[in-house]
Amino acid sequence: MSNVMLEVRELTTKYITRFRENIYAVDHVSLKVEEGKSLGIAGESGCGKSTLALSLMGYYFPPLHYTSGEIIIDGHNISGMNPDDVRRSILGTEIAYIPQAAMNALNPTQKIINFIEDVIEAHNPVATKKEIFDIAKGLFEALGLPVDVLQKYPVELSGGMKQRTVIAISVILSPQVLIADEPSSALDVTSQKMVIKMLRNLMDKGYIKAMIFITHELPLLYNVTDDIMVMYAGQIVEKASSKDAVFDPLHPYSKGLMGSIIVPESGLRNVKLTAIPGVPPNLKKPPSGCRFAARCKYVRPECKTLSIPLREVAGGRTYRCILSEEELRELYAWEARKKNE
Amino acid sequence: MSSEKKLCLSGSGVTKVFGFGRNTTLAVDHVDFNFYEGEIISIVGESGSGKTTLAKMLLGLINPTEGEIYFQGEKRDISTHRKKKEYWKSIQAIFQDPFSSYNIFNKIDTVLLDCIRMRGGGKLPYEQKVEMMTEACSFVNLKFEELTNKYPFELSGGQQQRLMIARIFLLKPKILLADEPTSMIDACSRATILDMLMQLRDEIGMTPIFITHDIGLAYYVSDSVYIMERGKFVESGSADDVILHPKEPYTRRLISDVPKIYEEWDLSTV
Known about the structure:
heterodimer, A: alpha/beta, eight-stranded mixed beta sheet, 12 strands, B: alpha/beta, 10 strands, 24% strand
């Protein structure tokens, strides 16, 4: 029985627009990340992945509002806490967040070391500059970053190096959980690999105890995380181990996502990429019944009216579809046969 | 076979040097290439390898320091603005960032009407223009009735990129330069965009040139692949040859940097 680092129960958060409309971008999401594990979140743009990341920190500022549910980080329940308290006692020390454009967080008028001094002094006012330098140096050395970066200004660093520097700084207060929201999508493939290697390093060396990784690149998730959770229109539609989610998806939406994978391996050229037609629904008025029904190939009349709960199947997998596991597999097999003919 | 192929765009010794005096950067270094009509070409390289500089030279946005570019076997002449405009009728581009490719003051109608005018349809009756625009929009699965009187920034990234393709559909250029057309949009729209580009190619018979750092994409779409490192083509050939049997260490490194699903992804090499 390993330790649960982050547990979320039925979390619902909403955006309130200027016109007083409620948009439930995270809708009854439950998840659990155990110590030493990483969870990947996949989905299209506009499916609520990034909103979920923001909500998990418990740091709500308008237009994002907390509605219901619980967030428990390493035993502390932080749901419903005052945002100021969250910032002082949770962010950075319990949970750290790396946004997509993390490199823009660096102050262009400060050297990296001054930036680190600011971060540490805000939480530990008695630390001396010498101590801070030693901490930073130790961290950078352990993570394989050149130490002379500390004495440089952000403009002197390349994009990939800036991103890695920010990731290193994000763990300097030793958080338990790291949330990485597309940390590598603005980078080229080589820098991306360095970032991924560094995140793996953080996990292996025990700087963080659990990680949530958000991206739309499935091959990347497959290589980085233990489990994959697929989100659609604010809801979880499937959760499985990385291998199952990529090679044997159950939900038609996950199946569609897997059809758009591009990898430079033999056999790819013969496969035709299958895109999912249409766009995600407008969450101002989410469709009743299955939210994916309008784009689903296997849609049935009852899909549009019945609300569909998450089903649990063997192997700890869950998915949200009206069809049973056998029926879905049969459909996929039938389609594969049709394609071959 | 090769004798039938018509030369579309070629260059010899194309070079670009930025800067003056001692502070010079050799961005593109004596590059030779022959792009044939109907072929799908990819230029692959990491950031700073000079692929975008080469693209700008092909488009005629910047002049090469040395070397010549030949268009359909003849020396390209874009010395005057009029000649340049004439040239841009046959070569068009899709850029990486759809959010900054449009003039924010122009409505979508203007964007599309400009294309019709460029093809010499400026004097057509308005109804016919609307018909053409509707056709172009429906080609990329957009509805013209919903787009008219809107601004491009009201659309999502994927929709904007599709509108870009609708422009190309109206312009019917001979060559399309796609500079990282899918790196800013998510994996699912990426498949849609690539699909549409391929359809468009069959429809109007253009020659697409993809410029990308994603070797997986290059492998999926292209017939011939050029690998670029520090301003030089280090390897070129058919997609299968280059990507499945790479010879250069640089190509091998690029391939190893892309996450894979059927093979182990080796993280120790960086």
